[in-house]
Request: fold
Amino acid sequence: MTTTDPDHWNQVYDARPETALTWFEATPTVSLDLLARHLGPGQALIDVGGGASRLVDHLLGLGAGPLAVLDISEAALAASRARLGEAADQVAWMVADITTFCPDQSWWVWHDRAVFHFLTEPADRAAYLAVLDKALEPGGHAIIATFADDGPEKCSGLPVMRYAPNDLAAEIERQLPGRFKPIESHRHMHITPKGNRQNFQFSVFQKTAG
Ligand SMILES: C[S@@+](CC[C@H](N)C(=O)[O-])C[C@H]1O[C@@H](n2cnc3c(N)ncnc32)[C@H](O)[C@@H]1O
Reply:
């Protein structure tokens, strides 16, 4: 089983409501705080592995966008679309594996909460970062949230990589030398719907111009 198996993720989303998933957040406060600083009016955002996250609901409410949500699971995106109703038409929904995604446009902000950390194979991480480099506008920002170095070792039955902000910055620098500058990072304790604690780190990187 790997993270790039859509069947795994479709089964996860079909098995229970989004509100029961360990990663559920009614209000994604850390992401919204970061986006308040790094996403200006009219600037385009892609939520990579956005799943059934309510980030898109909040961003629509703030008038942000254009917005795109990409996920390997069609079931996850269907849950978001059903929840949003007519407002879903304002979002570009993309069913794709981010490690093989071929972007035909670019975005100002790339947001990923809890996707990159599933990439345990170096080749998958290299592929993800190559897509990031291609998809992000020069000067734009990538927000990448992963389990922290003292976070859980598994999620959704899959092994994960855990990162301190310095480890994540080093991984990106190794794959894409000189392309991304770390701007800020934060630790965050997520409380799951069952009350368990999960330590995350959120890092923001700026793509160098040119
Ligand atoms: C832990 S969930 C996080 C969902 C969402 N970002 C959030 O914060 O609620 C991980 C998500 O990544 C998606 N995913 C896993 N591997 C992926 C891949 N290779 N490409 C695109 N999406 C992927 C899953 O379907 C799932 O929705």
